[in-house]
Amino acid sequence: METIEIKRSVQQIMQSLPQNVLLVAASKQRTIEEVQTAIEAGIKVIGHNYVQQAERMQEVIGYKVQWHMIGHLQKNKVNKAVKIFDMIETVDSFELAEKINERCEMENKFMPILIEINSGREPNKTGALPEEVDELILQISELPFLEIQGLMTMGPRFGNPEDARPYFKATKAAFDRLNQARLDNVEMLYLSMGMSNSYQIAIEEGANMVRIGSKLFGERKC
Ligand SMILES: *Cc1c(COP(=O)(O)O)cnc(C)c1O
After folding, report:
1. What is the pTM (predicted TM-score) of this model?
2. DSSP code, position 72
3. Which of 162, 151, 159 has its CA nearest to residue 200?
4. Rounded Cα–Cα distance for residues 218 and 197 (Å)
5. 196 Cβ below 6 A of ligand 1
6. pLDDT category of residue 11 using cuts at 50, 70 and 90
7. Residue 71 DSSP class
8. Ligand 1 pocket test: which of 1, 70, 73, 90 has the largest number of ligand atoms within 8 Å of its C-beta?
9. Distance between CA atoms of 54 and 63, rounded to whole angstroms?
């Protein structure tokens, strides 16, 4: 998209969001220039799926925005991810959490994380299964350098975003239940769900963090 169009769509979406909803600009496959334009228009949080591309972007853009990991994190990328991200939204196994915790200890850094749920129970998708989430959170809450701050879900990507609503509802129910459980070292602050085609429905169902790419930057080429 042209610079002016990116600015317009950023402002339009920011104005349309309720006050309590945090907008994460999903920036995979975008140029540094496009992301900088979005920041000029008011974006405060950049989400990225790929550690190395995020690192390159951060070298240019710096720390005037927050950086969230929103893609599947491979264990061999953990060291770099701990260095560059302010939040990892996609923790879905104890093994991954342990690796992140270990690295955080070396760097003397606390890492806010979200637990990713595979709310649609889709095979071959990342995220913990809904019935595994409680046990996983209990385990991870023992890791001293991680701060569990909420849940993230993709939800199945249907043609019709209305079809994602039941999965958003179920994730919100889990969020509320875990919040009421008041577990040690767990603070249910953020519920990250909804993308370009589904964020309005996600907000209706209780999301307070949305990850939007194509509606800010234009359709992706691939
Ligand atoms: C790409 C991506 C988004 C944004 O998707 P759009 O449909 O472009 O808004 C959100 N979350 C994750 C995890 C993504 O990979």
Report:
1. 0.97
2. P
3. 162
4. 12
5. yes
6. very high
7. S
8. 70
9. 12
